[in-house]
Specification:
Elements lengths: L6 H4 L2 H9 L5 H25 L11 H8 L8 H9 L1 H6 L4 H12 L2 E6 L43 H4 L29 E7 L2 E8 L2 E7 L9 E6 L52 E6 L14 E6 H4 L5 E4 L17 E5 L4 E6 L2 H11 L1 E8 L24 E5 L8 H5 L9 E5 L4 E4 L7 E3 L3 E5 L3 E5 L6 E4 L3 E5 L5 H6 L1 E5 L2 E4 L9 E5 L2 E5 L2 E2 L5 E2 L7 E2 L6 E3 L8 H6 L5 E5 L2 E2 L2 E3 L4 E18 L8 E27 L3 E3 L7 E2 L2 E2 L9 E2 L2 E2 L27 H5 L15 H15 L5 E6 L2
Parallel strand pairs: 2-38, 6-7, 8-9, 12-13, 13-17, 14-18, 16-19, 17-20, 18-21, 19-22, 20-23, 21-24, 23-28, 27-30, 28-31, 29-31, 30-31, 31-32, 32-33, 32-34, 34-36, 35-37
Antiparallel strand pairs: 1-2, 3-11, 4-5, 5-10, 7-11, 9-10, 15-16, 25-26
Helix pairs in contact: 5-7, 7-15
């Protein structure tokens, strides 16, 4: 749309010329501009009125008014779902009671993948010879199964193919059962005549484009004909952690009827049994793709990409074809029962491991070690932490300063890395934006950065602010060789110190080959340090070490900021007159330790200290940590702070606040185990207010997600905005579940009992 020219620009040229000739140039233009602002405001207001006529573009407050015209019951919750609910009212009423309408209704109100099942169709029944219902198509009684491995909808369990058995007990289970007469309790889909089950996939799938997997070893084998001479072992997660692979959610709401759930297109864990190319019940093409790319960087997978794409360099593998299969590779040192074939890829979706069968190590193995890339999908309850999501950036985050300079950092050959992008920050200049353009692992040795200061370790000296951000749709990993340390280049320059606003957004930060007692950030002598959508590796993930369920890794501290701000010189400490503010927005972090000069703000974040302190002081106990402001946080580990204020916190362990006469904590859940609290309002206390998570292990798909069955109602419904407490309260999952139940009562035929079954 072309921008409308202003009134002054529409005047005849003589008036504009005379205005420029006045002693005070621009007086007439400024006068005309006042009228122009009024007209622009009127025009904008008319534009808003026009868009408010349509449910797709109207303001959120207009949704119930448009709904009144259709006789729609008012709901509360996420604005996107409320818009979708009203927008699809007429089509859903026309198809009221059909399975497709139930799935569309669930998707509109939650945004989750949904699949509706008539549970009576899963019941065992005897054939009536006068009214036959064969399992396969064709004219009865000649119809027979097409293959011995085909699923049988109303027969006994078929044990011939694990691809079919992988659906057992799930949303696409094709096997019959006897009637289950026990009450459903609203959680278990029990086969019976009046029951309708709606299966929901609540976890969100995230596709990491073109990352570098971790090479573990390339092992020589003793092959028979057709078998691989070498087995190349890789861990998909760049940090070598166990990772559950998920499929991508692919749906078509524009189809008639809309398609919101297909057996191999839902955002659920990838079943290993479906990854075979051969058997009729395998469907590897819906889960894995092999991309042979030319020189340079592989293209990012598109919106319709499958869960796992393996990128192989064409310089060695051009013209090759590969087969795939799934297997359990948690003990791959012992080899496979079915030998690895040449040009075969074996995937362990439960642990995120890859085996590739190659002919030699010198050429093919070396090509994989240097050029193998993967695009993989994982799942999380929401976009808290570093995820490959769409991002929008403000024009400037440093008002009053010069226009920032933008530099890029890439880990691919020919690109400049973080070391070059961070060099020169000790020289005065405009703010610097460092945009990381890929999802690769960026290894950073601070000692190699120009203008580095060695002050109890390599320290970035800053004469201007900077911002490290991930490009939209990317999730880079920044692997630090030493703890990150930052300070002002001139502690006595008050103007500089006030301007030092440091931001990191969209990246995973971790330490490499450092003791687990070292924190990721150990110095921040700046005005403000902000983490947004960042994961500061908290440790605690599962390590596969041969034990049945693995061993939890040691926790990794995130921040350990000393009271003296790291200044060895007392005069420098005295001259630095700032009280640094550290903010986390939408982050996952390890434990946080700070001195009394810092302020801490936590918004929609998870702080995981394991069994140790989540937030405390760098001084030994009984010292207290910083003044803390919270807004929707989940904390694993005890908390000891000087003062606390905010709402929506879930404190799994003890909270002790030194100044318990000031501040207020509202809509929070406390452990009830020796807490020392400030004034509080509308809070829940353990152990009566039960608290349970889908998983409290970092890296698990349901990490930090409240278990809706075993968590107390107060925690799920009495948080801010009458929704759940904790980091994921902004998702408004409780409202989504309630809204769905309300609409199901309106759209479900009389006599049908609806059961909501959460798959993830």
């Amino acid at each position: 749309m072309t921008e409308r020219p202003g009134l002054f620009e529409r005047l005849p040229a003589i008036y504009r010329t005379r205005d420029a000739d006045l002693s005070r140039e621009g007086q007439f233009e400024a006068y005309i501009g006042l009228m122009d602002e009024i007209l622009e405001g009127i025009d904008d207001h008319i534009d808003v009125f026009y868009h408010d006529h349509f449910i797709e573009t109207c303001a959120d407050w207009m949704v119930p008014y448009i709904g009144d015209l259709l006789g729609v019951t008012h709901l509360k919750g996420d604005p996107w779902t409320l818009h979708a609910d009203v927008a699809r009212t007429v089509p859903l009423r026309r198809r009221r009671g059909t399975l497709g309408a139930m799935e569309a209704l669930a998707f509109n109100l939650t945004g989750w993948a949904a699949h509706a099942v008539e549970l009576r169709e899963r019941m065992v029944w005897n054939q009536n010879l006068n009214h036959q219902r064969p399992d396969a198509g064709g004219a009865p009684p000649q119809s027979l199964p097409r293959h011995l491995a085909d699923p049988v909808s109303h027969g006994t369990v078929n044990l011939r193919d694990p691809g079919v058995l992988s659906f057992l007990g799930g949303a696409f289970d094709g096997f019959a059962r006897t009637a289950d007469l026990k009450p459903t309790g609203g959680i278990h889909p029990r086969p019976n005549l009046p029951n309708l089950a709606i299966f929901l996939w609540r976890l969100r799938d995230f596709l990491v484009p073109v990352a570098r997997p971790l090479h573990v070893a390339t092992v020589q084998q003793t092959p028979d004909p057709g078998e691989a001479a070498f087995a190349a072992r890789y861990v998909i997660d760049p940090l070598g952690r166990s990772l559950q692979l998920f499929n991508s959610f692919r749906y078509n709401p524009g189809a008639e009827p809309p398609e919101f759930s297909q057996p191999d297109r839902t955002p659920g864990p990838i079943p290993a049994a479906r990854l075979r190319d051969g058997p009729p019940t395998g469907n590897a093409a819906e889960y894995i793709a092999v991309d042979i790319f030319e020189s340079g960087r592989p293209d990012d997978p598109g919106d319709a990409a499958v869960g796992l794409t393996i990128h192989l360099p064409a310089t060695v593998f051009a013209g090759t074809s590969w087969t795939t299969r799934g297997a359990n590779l948690c003990a791959w040192e012992e080899g496979l029962r079915s030998p690895l074939l040449e040009r075969e890829i074996v995937v362990d979706p439960k642990h995120g491991r890859l085996l590739l069968g190659v002919a030699d190590n010198a050429t093919e193995g070396a090509a994989l070690r240097s050029r193998l890339r993967v695009s993989h999908t994982y799942a999380a309850p929401g976009s808290i932490g570093a995820h490959p999501v769409a991002r929008t950036f403000a024009d400037t985050i440093w008002p009053g300063l010069a226009e920032p300079e933008v530099v890029t950092a890439t880990a691919h050959p020919g690109g400049s890395g973080l070391r070059a992008a961070l060099s020169g920050l000790a020289t005065a200049g405009p703010p610097r934006i460092i945009e990381v353009t890929d999802s690769m692992t960026h290894r950073l040795n601070l000692a190699d950065v120009d203008d580095i200061l060695d002050e109890d370790g390599p320290t970035l000296t800053l004469a201007r602010p900077f911002w490290i951000r991930a490009r939209t749709g990317q999730r880079p990993v920044i692997e630090l060789r030493q703890s990150l340390r930052m300070r002002s280049s001139d502690p006595a320059d008050a103007a500089l110190n006030r301007a030092l606003d440091i931001r990191i957004e969209g990246a995973v930060l971790t330490l490499r080959d450092a003791p687990v007692t070292d924190a990721i950030v150990t110095r921040a002598a700046v005005n403000r340090l902000t983490f947004e959508g960042v994961t500061l590796n908290p440790g605690g993930h599962v390590v596969l070490d041969g034990s049945p369920s693995g061993t939890p890794a040691d926790p990794q501290p995130a921040l350990a900021l000393a009271p003296d701000l790291g200044f060895a010189d007392a005069a420098a400490l005295e001259a630095f007159d700032e009280l640094p503010e550290v903010s986390f927005r939408g982050c996952i972090s390890g434990s946080i330790s700070m001195g009394p000069r810092y302020r801490l703000n936590l918004t929609d974040s998870i702080v995981d200290g394991g069994d140790q302190l989540a937030i405390g002081s760098t001084d030994p106990a009984p010292a207290y940590g910083p003044i803390t402001e919270i807004d929707g946080v989940t904390l694993f580990g005890a908390v000891r702070v000087r003062a606390a204020n905010g709402e929506g916190g879930v404190f799994r362990d003890q909270l002790r606040v030194r100044d318990h006469q000031t501040g207020c904590l509202s809509y929070c859940r406390f452990s009830g185990d020796g807490d020392r609290l400030p004034p509080h309002f509308a809070c829940a206390f353990g152990p009566d207010a039960q608290l349970a998570f889908t998983s409290s292990i970092f890296g698990a798909p349901g990490y930090g997600q409240l278990n809706r069955i075993r968590t107390a109602r107060e925690v799920l419904e009495d948080g801010p905005n009458a929704d759940e407490m904790g980091a994921y309260g902004t998702l408004m999952n409780t409202h989504k579940q309630k809204n769905l139940n309300i609409r199901l009562r309106e759209f479900t035929p009389v006599g049908i009992r609806t059961v909501l079954a959460n798959v993830t």
